[in-house]
Amino acid sequence: MDSDRTSPGVGQADPIDTLPPGFRWGVATSSYQIEGAVAEDGRTPSIWDTFCRVPGAVAGGDTGDVACDHYHRMPDDVGLVADLGLDTYRFSVAWPRVQPGGRGPANPAGLAFYDRLVDELLGRGIDPWVTLYHWDLPQELEDAGGWPARDTAYRFADYAELVVDALGDRVDTWTTLNEPWCSAMLGYVEGVHAPGRRNLGDGIAAAHHLLLGHGLAVPRLRAGAGRPIEVGITVNLATADPATDTSLDRDAARAADGLGNRLYLDPLIHGRYPEDVVADLAAQGVRIPVEDGDLPVIAAPIDVLGVNFYFGQLFSGVDEQGRDRDADGAPVRRVVRRDLPRTAMDWEIVPESFTDLLVRLGRDYPGVPLVITENGAAFDDRPDADGFVADDDRVAYLAEHLRAVARARLAGADVRGYFAWSLLDNFEWAYGYEKRFGIVRVDYDTQRRTPKRSALWYRDTVRRVRGQR
């Protein structure tokens, strides 16, 4: 790693040290990626259990059947969080574990796992941060139409009420959805995530109904808790900048920003869909299935906006041959690769774009506190004979991005916390177990956990920043 990417510069103060005393420090995971135990205690299949059985859908034919076996090793994993000195653990609840089939009453055995998890966290002085949906839709609901079907939004609100009834007395912060863009676009348009559909109309309907489900759930969470709680949603955002100052490149960047960012942020915060995105979709014969009253529901006031950031991109409105229309006559929107360091996911490392994004959120969507609910990187980790990983590239990535957060705060962005993705190496969706994001290494043969150098760096950084107060 280039030395000027791993430190703030000789003789310069580290921006990380400007993070305030009340700043949250955490790690994040998700249910299907770590829990395993997919057929235990009444859990029924999710769309990911089904998708993993589709030949060629997941690298190596991998599944989440065992994953990190967190379902059986949960107390020890909470101990890892405590050992790192972190104050918050963000996890997701598996819908088909709590409400098998996606309808009807709660499954007591499934809820009991999360009840024990919350108590274990609180007993260690760690705040539980619940995400209700991290992509594991009950298969029965997909069979009934999935997220493109409006009814799924109502089923989600019912499920949210079941969970808050059980945990609302102890959990202070609730996230409805994780990354609705991924659920809608990767799952229903590009087909590379469960359930594997490829239809733009389905994807746009899914996006709207995901947001509607969020809005329907918000008041039910507040009522079900019976006490003040914080409710929010997590969106994955990326910068979309024009490769040049030509009108074609600027329009390509506008369109990418619209479909990737503003399609979600505008209805959530401003109660409307962006007009240019609606027009872009109409040109492709697609409409957002908004019904009367939907937008005020979606714009229910939230207390926190979770931001997941991994990369930024440049866009061009012409292809490599200089054409501005593709074979179907649609405008070209091409990602332009830059000569930049990349992660094992082939994602460009652009921490300065992270600062730009956070400052832009404070400007365009003011009044909602931000928490970085995911940020991290996969690299080709190589353990030594003892299983230890000297992942200096990941240390550099985390340091760069924490500095980007600190710089955004200094520029006025109201960022109140940072959660590294992820606590553990885990099932990385269509990549199976090939890609490792964890700050703790998991030996999938033995399930042995070994904190990597990045975990130790993160622990020491948190201690250092807190110790300066």
Automatic annotation (TrEMBL):
It is an enzyme of class 3 (hydrolase). One of its GO terms (cellular component) is cytosol. Substrate binds at Q33, H134, N178, Y310, W421, E428, W429. GO terms for molecular function: beta-glucosidase activity. It holds the Pfam family Glyco_hydro_1. It catalyses: Hydrolysis of terminal, non-reducing beta-D-glucosyl residues with release of beta-D-glucose. GO terms for biological process: cellulose catabolic process. Keywords: Carbohydrate metabolism, Cellulose degradation, Glycosidase, Hydrolase, Polysaccharide degradation. Gene3D superfamilies: Glycosidases. Its EC number is 3.2.1.21. The active site is at E179 (proton donor), E374 (nucleophile). SUPFAM superfamilies: (Trans)glycosidases. Residues 1-21 are annotated as: Disordered. Belongs to the glycosyl hydrolase 1 family. This is Beta-glucosidase.
